Known about the structure:
Strands 1-5-4-3-2 form a 5-stranded antiparallel beta sheet, covered by helices on one side. The two termini are 19 Å apart. It is an alpha+beta fold and 79 residues long. It has 1 helix and 5 strands. The protein has one helix at 18-31, and strands spanning 6-11, 36-40, 43-46, 49-60, 63-72.
Amino acid sequence: MQLKDRMEIILEERYFGMPELCAAVVHHLQAQGIVVQPIDSYSLCLNDIRYELRENNVSMGGVPVQRVLLRKVTAESPC
């Protein structure tokens, strides 16, 4: 899978803490065959590229869903 500068993941379950959310994102990405290593609760290393993890809640059809945004961090911040 080719990684982008920004990615969006919509999770089916809700997570109420960043450590649990980060672990769920790691599991989701590993299931897709992406090499991922958590750095902390807000950063991940995907295929040797650092990404910032942000959480956002949105309403889809009146049902709140948890959306995770991954944004590529500049080259000055390697994994």
